[in-house]
Structures are given as C-alpha cells and as structure tokens.
Amino acid sequence: MKKLLITMTVNDEQFDLMVRPNETLTETLRERLGLTGVKEGCAEGVCGACAVLMDQHPVRACLTLSMEADGTSITTIEGLASDGKLHHLQESFINHGAVQCGFCTPGMIMVSKALLDEKPSPTDDEIKEALSGNLCRCTGYKKILEAVRSTTQIDPKKGA
Amino acid sequence: MANPDYHLIGKSLPRIDSAPKVSGEALFTGDLNLPRMLVGKILRSPYTHALIKTIDISKAKALKGVHAVITGQDTAGEKWGVFKYTRDQQLLCVDKVRYVGDEVAAVAAVDEETADEALDLISVEYEELPGVFDCFSAIAPGAPVIHDSHPRNINVAVKIEVGDVEEAFKKCSIIREDTFAADEDSYFMMEPYAVVANYRSDGSIEIWMPNASPHTKAKALSNALRIPLTKVIARKITIGGAFGGRSDVFPAEFITCLLSIKSKRPVKVVYTREENSIATRMGHAMTTTIKTGVDKEGRVLARDIVSYLDGGAYSSTGPIATSVPFLCHEQTYRLENVRFHGYRIYTNKPVRGMIRIHGRSFACGIDTQLDMIAQELGIDPITIRLKNARRPGETTATGSYVSSCGLVECIEKTAAKSDFINKFNNKKPFHGIGIGINSVQTGFPLGIRGGSQALIKFHEDGGATVISGVVDNGQGNDNMLVQIAAEELGIPVEEIRLISADTEITPTDAGSYSMISTFGGGNAVKRAAADARRQIFEIASELLEADPEDLVAKDKKIFVRGAPHAGIPMEKIIRKSLLIGRPIMGTGSFSPEVDQRREWVSNPRGQLSQAFSFGATVAEVEVDPETGTVKAHNVTCAQDCGFALNPMVVEGQFQGGVAMGGQGGMLTEAHHWSQGHVLNPTMLEYKIPIIKDMPNIETIIVESIDPVGPYGAKEAGMSIAMSAAQAYANAIGNALGIYFNRFPLTPERIFDAIENRKSGIETAWDLEPARVIEFDK
Q: What is the pTM of this model?
C-alpha cells in the first residue's frame, strides 16, 4: 500500500509522517508516537475512549483516518498538563473520585475540555449531552458529572 | 462515619492510582511495547459444534513475516478447569470445537496484516455436528452430547436441602410457585482483553494481562506450559475493569506464551471487542422456578427452588456459579426449611462465568415473588422484607454464622429516605417504586486458595514500600492497601510506594474475586504495618526512654502520646535500625476463618465466608405505556459495608453498581442469539448505560463494624449492584401493576406484558418451569 506524507502538530510538536491510506489516527498516535493515553475500547466509534481534539474539536481517533489529520493540530491527554502541572479538569477528576479503572478517563477528559473551551459554564444537561458518547462501566457517571461541573464553578474561564 | 481515632481511614482521600490515569501515563496491557515484539492472532471455530478432521498450517508457516504457528498438536491436549473435576476446556482444541469462537490455531507475525493473512492461510477441515442452544433442549433425551463424559449435558448439579421442606409447606397459609428467566449479560469492561508474553533465554516467561489474581494465573500457566511456577511471572499492569470477567484462566494466555516460546520473541495479543465478548466469559442465562410458602404474617416457612443455568461450552467456575445465587439468597433471608437444585447445563455457546449481578433471574424472582405474596396478604414490601431479613448473630441455612449484619438498617434507611411507604400507598399512574435486598460474601474457599500476605520495607528518608499480592481491577485496591499502611505507620500516603500483583516479587494472595480484597489483603497489610510499627516502637522506646505501649506514630514521627513536639522523625529510626543491625521489615498475613471442608457440590455446608455484606436499593421509575420505555428518576441505595475506609471510593462502587445492576442490568443488557451465534457482541448493539440514562442516586453507607474486617470493613458495592436489579424489576412492576418474570425488561417485553395483561396476582408470562432432573440409574 502506497504511503502518504502528512504533517500534523501533536501536543504542540510538529511531525512529518508517512502513513498508510487506511491508517487510523489511533494507530498513528499510539503506535508511532507512543501516545498510549489514547485508548481503543471498541474500534467502532461507540465508546469514546479514543477521543482527542483536532483543532480544538473532539474526534474519535478510531474513526479518523490519519490522512484527515494532515495539517491539523491534535491534542491528546498527554498534552493537557502544562509546566508539569495537571489541567484543572484532570485535578477535578482525581479529587472527585471520578476515576476508577481509568480506561475511559482520557476520552472523558478530552471531551469535557472541548465542551468547557466552547462553553465555560454548561448546565448539567449540556455536560451530559457532551459526554453521552463516552462510555464508562465503573462509575455510574455521577462522579464524572460532579468533576466536570465543579470546574465550571471554580473557574469560569476554561481551558486557557 | 469519621472515627476520631483514625487520621486517614474513613476519609475520602483521592486514590493513588488516579493521577497516572488522568495523565495518560498509566499503562494497560495493550499499551505495552517490547523490543522485537510480534503480533499474535487466534483462529477461532466458525461452527457451534464440529469435529476437527485436519488442520493444515504449511502455507501459513511459509508466509514471510510469520514466526510461529501453533495448533492443538502443540499442546498435548492440555485442559483448563477451575477445579480438578471440571477440567474440560482444551487450551487449543485438538479434536472438537464446541462454540463459535473456540480456539483452533494461532500465529505470531511481524505485524497485524501479516498475522491476519497467515490466519487466512490455515485450512481446517471440520465435520459439523448438531448443536444445542438452550438448557431445555440440551437436557432433553437424545440431544447432542457436547462432552462425552456428561450425559444430558449436565455439567454441574448442586443439591442443598435443609430442614423439612415438605412438612413446612403443610403449615403455610399461602403457597406460590413462579418461574423467572433472564438472558445472558456481559461485562463490557472498557478495556478489551489483551496478553503480552515474553519468554526469556533463562527459561522464564513474563506475562501481562488484565486479571483478578496474578498468582492463580501463574499457577495455571505453570501447569499447562510445564514451566516451574518460579519461572512463570505474572506482572503488574493497570486493569480496565473486571466485574467478574477476568477471574478465570483463558486459552489466550496459554496461547500467547506458547507463541512467545516458539518464536523466542515477545508476543502481544489484543482482542477485538467481539473476541472480548465471545472468547473470555459472559453471564449465564438462567431460569429459576421458586415455590414459596408463608404463614399469615408473611414469614417464609418453606422454599423450594430449581435453577437451570446455561453454562455454554465449558465448566469455567461452574460449581461456584451454580451455587452463588442461592448462597446470596440464604444470607439475605432467614430460611429454616429450604431446598435448592441447581443445574449448570452445557450448550454450544460461549463460556459463562461469574458476573457482578450473577443470577438476575434468581434474585429478582425471589424479590418479585415476595411482593406478590405481600399483595396477597395485604402488607407492603418493606414489612414483608423486615419480617424475613437476616439479623446479626444468626446462621444461614447451610451453616454460615453471620457476625455483623446491618440489613435491617439498610432496609429502614432506604425506605425512609425514599419515602417508600407513602409513595407505594399513593401511587401516581405509571410511576412505580420497588425495593430489592441482597447479600454477598467477602471471599470463600475454593479448595485452591490461601490467604494474603504482605511485606513492608522502609527507605532511609522514612518512606516505606508496601508489597502485596492483591490486584487492582479498577475498584481501588491499590489505594486501599496504601491508605491502611499510611494509617498504621503514621506516614503520609504520598511517601508510601506500592508493589503489588507481581508474582516474582509479591507474596501470594487469594485474588480479587468474591469481594475478598479488603477483608483479606487489607487485613494482611494492616498486620504487616502493625508488625513494622512494633519494631519501630522498640527502637523509638530506647531513644525516647518510653514504654512502646505509650508511643504514637503520626506525621512521620514517633512520639509519646500527648507529646508530638518531642517526637523522633521516622528517618532517624530507620537509620538507627540499620546502624544497630535490626533493619525493619514488617510482615503480615491473613486467612479468613472458613470451613475448608466445605465443597461446592460434595459438601455444601459449613462457614462459607467470614463476613457478609448486605444491601438494599429502592428504585423509582416512570413507564411510558405507549412505548414500554422506562425512565428511572431516583435510586436510593444503602449498604452495610462494615466500615467505609474511604467513603468516596465506596460511593463510587455503589453508583457503578446501580448503573450496571439496575439501569443496564434490568433495562437493556442482554445478548441476542441465532443458532448459537451471538448477534450483539459489540458496544454498538449491546446497550450499556450512558450518562444521560442515569437517575439521581442517593447513597447511604451503613456501618456494622465487622469484628474481623480491617477497621470493621467488609466489601463495597456488590450487594448494591445485585439489589439494584431487584429494585428496578419491582419498581417497573409496581408502575404497571404487572409482576415481571423475564429479564431484562426491554421496551418490547414491557409493551408485550401491557398488551397481554393478566388478571389476578400472576407473573406476566407463562414460562416453562425448571424441574428437578431425574438421572437414569
């Protein structure tokens, strides 16, 4: 299969990569760039564990061809902390007990970040709407909702 | 409840494993990447039941990039079973396949494409056999036999009889017999199954996989691979959920090891979501017929129960799975005269194991029927449960003494908080309220299980490392161990490291199933920490010229009670211990006091578990009669967890239990079938709850302070998951005035029951009852 050259920025670092036409963004991020915080739970766009931000918008990396990411800026869970300090959403997930097995956590946090970047003070219904494509089998979602909600109260200016 | 004697225990501290999980740093098995690692893939049976005539692997072996191809011929027909008498699953099929998904061959290749191509090049000639796909057909005379050793496909038969059931029925005012059934359910843990194996030139092999007991896995692999146990090393890895589905040993572990041994390279197998559903374990489908007799006050005098469990192709945890629904029941309710016949039946379907709400039809049947009886008697669901609920100091039907039990408090508190009686008596149309109660064990003997041991060593800066065999599946065991050690040693949580679940280093542990980790592993760490503290106090008492009895360990200092300002820093004591040649090493172990003579089939009596947890859940729902859809509004749950070591973690277990047991377990979760093929193996078709589905959940922690559990703790959440299913079933029934007996309650089923509503106090559907099976002499 003929490979194609793409250029993308991942967590503020630029990469030139030769990708197969059928290569998914999950494969590229996990296997080539070692960003294993991008989880693959279903490989069919249902569970949301592979959610990353493409130009600030959440996408499912398992359903995104790497070719589509050419020229875009990708943020993964590994790119969220800055200056060695966790993002306040990450802190909030820890402090609210919103993490159990942790497999869904990166996707949950990335989708929450996209929501809060766009809408700093969402209602509970808006949070639920945004996270309705992210499955969690451990928590019953209550503490996840609380974790996201609390960041809207602490700091109205999200995702700086 | 905060206890002033403790400074960390009983507090909602963030879990130690959450920071690496929110940063993406935590590695799960599928994330591992070793140098020269190959991709492993498994060829599975496309048939439900067939003989393997020939397998030709020559073309696959010749393909460039393929480093190993294995079949049953490479395994000497090695079989797995949890017990010696249930070893019936060949780790690679030699002569016969018994379900769609059975492992037939495997390859290791340089990449996924090559591995897939190699699988395509393996040619297998099968001779198809007729299959059986449900319990009733499987036990019918003349049905195809799946295992020659088991006529009528009866895998396990458990019989329990206590008291004089027939005589007691004669004294009853009301006797009912009803049949309840439930479909197969699945775990759908977020992490798909994966294995990495790394065979090394010294003859040892390392293995990583999601598991509920690294020591059990290592033992089984050692036997199957014929490699000494010392050289089979199950490594610690982050695990993405278990819910009972990682307890067993799976062929993939053995296969991945064999591929690594053959190729002399590390091999990784990652299951697709479909493989995770069909080729690990799933829940049993089950039919339960319950005959209950009560006196005129609603006290149960006699009960006779027959259950059929559809076990799929192999035994797995068969004897346990067959018994546990009854055992949970006999813990929950007082029963003086009771009989139980449980049959686990082979079918040509994927293998079934234990699941978080194992035995939905049984538990929901008991509680639904109790509501029916209450209606006949004109009493409410709370009253009839309180009349029959377990109290502390009692003994279960099969002889387990129940020392701590807060079941009555759970019932009373959920009823009060939800305003149950008022809502039950003043019902709004299509709104319903229901209660379920249940109980689970904190570990049980398996004949192959010991207790747990722990070690604690110290660093020259006064920090410590805890070493324990307990595994964390995601429920928070790692944090539990560290929080206990920190409490006992007076060292901050951040300055305690944990090495756990690595069989090369960690002492043995009973495994994180049957809810034993806090009770067993927690107690072992507590004892190891107490042992270390004793040694620390000995040295400190010399330095402080004080009696060790008067010393306190807190904030990394040792001081005489009441004089923290004059304390000695921990690091000073650690250094002193090295100087004087008495280095500190804490050791502790704990084995629950259970009756080791108890056996699932041959001797089901004696102390099953040292402690039991109890839970009650109330659900409030609204049903749309036009569509049959259910909206759950409020769920109130209370569990006697003994003592909440970390209330935030305990609440999380309750909430997750409501989601899996009630919301998913009663409304949507079921596998659909066509002739032994599962039609919904992926998350697209098998519906687990999403955030929008969830009701408001109120959690109530009840603390009975168990005399043996660490700080009084037992287990957290499991009896909520189970009772939530029962509460949902009863609430939906209450909303419509229909007693449901087929689960889960999908809109189609609810709509059907509304359309074909029966008069009187009857179950919604006439189901074929499970009957005692008479064996041919």
A: 0.97
